Amino acid sequence: MKIIVLDRDGVINLDSDQFIKSPDEWKPIPGSLEAIARLNEANWRVVVASNQSGVGRGLFDMDTLNAINEKMVKAIGHVGGRLDAIFFCPHAADSPCECRKPKPGMFLQIAERFNVDLDGMPVVGDSLRDLQAGVAVGCKPYLVLTGKGKKTVIDPALPEGTVVFPDLAAVVAQLTA
Ligand SMILES: [Mg+2]
Ligand SMILES: [Zn+2]
């Protein structure tokens, strides 16, 4: 089974420093939805793993997060794609939880849910912590330059072996070539 793990904000949709707090604020990055459909066609299962500390901070509630994710799922469906699962950490940044990236808790949940080996699994993110969480459990890090990626790419802490692409569509073009 081929599984790829995507961050959400800054990878699939445009990011905002003010958080994505409503379905209206969720806007896809051009080409990202079609890229997910292309992955599905190439027999990849696509899983989202996303920090959503806005819930823990009280900026939006679980119903709103579900509505935002539902908009994303529908938009992907409109271009013939699908997500196999959406994992998220709703906890605040100072929470001692095990799921907030850069901790690898969500990746361990993915391994358990799909009964897969995480070694070499592609993880696509725009922030250092997305990549660090994946690398901690053996995933292969893909940095995209959308979202916070242009800041992340010059970070000296970028994990060794990180490959850099302009956006998700470019990652997928390479993976499905
Ligand atoms: Mg992000
Ligand atoms: Zn958490």
TrEMBL record:
Biological process terms in GO annotation: carbohydrate metabolic process
Binding of Zn(2+), residues: 89, 91, 97, 99
Residue sites binding Mg(2+) per the record: 7, 9, 126
UniProt keyword annotations, A-Z: Carbohydrate metabolism, Cytoplasm, Hydrolase, Magnesium, Metal-binding, Zinc
Gene3D superfamilies reported in the protein's UniProt record: HAD superfamily/HAD-like (3.40.50.1000)
Domain of life: Bacteria
Active site residues according to the UniProt entry: 7 (nucleophile), 9 (proton donor)
The keyword Coiled coil is assigned to this record: no
Catalytic class of the enzyme: hydrolase
Reactions catalysed, as given in the entry: D-glycero-beta-D-manno-heptose 1,7-bisphosphate + H2O = D-glycero-beta-D-manno-heptose 1-phosphate + phosphate
UniProt xrefs under InterPro entries: HAD-like_sf (IPR036412), HAD-SF_hydro_IIIA (IPR006549), HAD_sf (IPR023214), Heptose_bisP_phosphatase (IPR004446), Histidinol-phos (IPR006543)
Cofactor: Mg(2+); Zn(2+)
Location of this chain's protein in the cell: Cytoplasm
EC number: 3.1.3.-
Signal sequence extent: none
Gene Ontology terms, MF aspect: D-glycero-beta-D-manno-heptose 1,7-bisphosphate 7-phosphatase activity; metal ion binding
Pathway info: Nucleotide-sugar biosynthesis; ADP-L-glycero-beta-D-manno-heptose biosynthesis; ADP-L-glycero-beta-D-manno-heptose from D-glycero-beta-D-manno-heptose 7-phosphate: step 2/4
Record note on quaternary structure: Monomer.
Name the record gives this protein: D,D-heptose 1,7-bisphosphate phosphatase
Organismal lineage: Bacteria, Pseudomonadati, Pseudomonadota, Betaproteobacteria, Rhodocyclales
Gene that this sequence comes from: gmhB
